[in-house]
What does this fold into?
Amino acid sequence: MPVLKADFEACQGYGNCITGAPDAYDIDDDGVVVLLKQEITDEERPRIEEAARSCPVSALTVEDS
Amino acid sequence: MSEPASSVRTVVVVGSSVGGVRTAQALRSEGFGGRVVLVGDEARLPYDKPPLSKQFLAGSWGTERVALLTEATADQAGIELRLGVAAERLDVAGRQVVLADGQRLDYDAVVIATGAAARPSPWAARSGVHVVRTMSDSESLQADLRRDDHVVVVGGGFIGAEVAATARSLGREVTVVDPLPVPIGRVVGAAVGSHFAELHRRHGVATRFGTGVESVEGEAGNLRVVLTDGTELTAGTVVVGIGATPNDGWLADSGLLVENGVVCDEFCRAVDAPAVHAVGDVARWFHPDRGEHIRVEHWTNAVDQAVCVAHNIAHPDDLRADRPVEYVWSDQYDWTIQIVGRPHRATEHHLVGDPAADRPRFAALYRGADGQLIAAVTVNWPKALVTCRRLVAAGSTFAAAVTQVEALAAAPARTAGAPA
Ligand SMILES: Cc1cc2nc3c(=O)[nH]c(=O)nc-3n(C[C@H](O)[C@H](O)[C@H](O)COP(=O)(O)OP(=O)(O)OC[C@H]3O[C@@H](n4cnc5c(N)ncnc54)[C@H](O)[C@@H]3O)c2cc1C
Ligand code: SF4
It folds into this structure.
């Protein structure tokens, strides 16, 4: 199954990922992205991949496990 | 790769910045299996623009940090790059993009992502006057900012303010000039805007707001800026940030309806030419919730439209309208500013937190005529922004939003770093 990865150091709290995939990404009180799940299904991959690509600092990726 | 779901076999994307690149990538995510050709007039590999007035201009990020697409990632995604050649004409009837080198590219669907250009300086000096739109612009300004002399920034909007902050961080003496008394007030309202003006002063940057520029003369290192009130400023470098105009000139004889951008329907398809789509700064599309055609010069808007257009090309039987809530960020000095919605339409606003504090964390919530939360401006407070972005999208009442953000403010901020 595809896995979600995040570069927590790079994240700037822009929040675009959360708008695109609120079931996969959230933000903590310090403004850093939180992964709500580790693995996703192939079916939800396109939507979550697009949300990941909406990150202005490329902090998010969806990788093959 | 899967068979194309539609009859479209070749998509030509014109413009290789964020709108164009994200469209090409999203076509693959959406399962499009045909040819994708990405045309760009700049010879460089696609790069991102927001850092050009911030980290890239400061020299803290190099070219690799601003790259949008490498040859390897393009290859992997099956995106054919045609860089360093401009699209000169669009032949809508013949379904061809005509390139400056005479080549014609056949398409079944075309995506116009040619963005915008910086409005040029109306004042002609011999040298030393800059705009900031491309990587070359940012590089040449960076070189001039290394000289220790006075920098005058004309235009106190987002890009002007960011350039002023960056120049200041490099140790330069800076003055920002703008004919408006509260430049960012145009976006966020005069009351909140005054805190942005104060931010410059707090960081030792002089402002001449409410004063225009009469002329700029001289050359790099020795420029004279005459203001409309007769004052003369001397400067080594002048930066002009007075807005942008859409790159739609190449479509003049295409027969498309072009009016300050390519006019599109709610699916981001050119009106009267459904095989032609537009995304990003060049698109003026019909926003169903706004009830009018709008053109937005924000990064997130370009990415949202890229996804929408890619979906509509790959799935013509399931068209999706593009109806985003506006969102833009800006980094100025020690403020990370995030704006959601359209604050200038508000009837009143409410502040949570103190903008005058040292490195403040605050939010301004804006109430629409019908009592809804229509916009929010947050500073150094991503959590509040995300909350407000959801509330604006959900059509929350202003009162409920104020209660929720005040509760957020009361919750203690965690001090630990990133979650494991
Ligand atoms: C300095 C700067 C800072 C910014 N900061 C922020 C920010 O902090 N937050 C934010 O939300 N937004 C910001 N923006 C705005 C954001 O970058 C733009 O909204 C975004 O770049 C729009 O993307 P686009 O692909 O539509 O257009 P563009 O980025 O303008 O790209 C268009 C591309 O098309 C090419 N092109 C043009 N004509 C042709 C042709 N005829 N043939 C082939 N190619 C052509 C151009 O060379 C360019 O590469 C900033 C913009 C700038 C310039
Ligand atoms: S979009 Fe990127 S920067 Fe923004 S919260 Fe998500 S990961 Fe962080």
Summary: The domain at 334-410 of chain B is CATH 3.30.390.30 (Enolase-like; domain 1). Chain B has three domains: 5-117+245-314, 120-242, 334-410. Confidence is low (pLDDT under 50) at residues 415-420 of chain B.
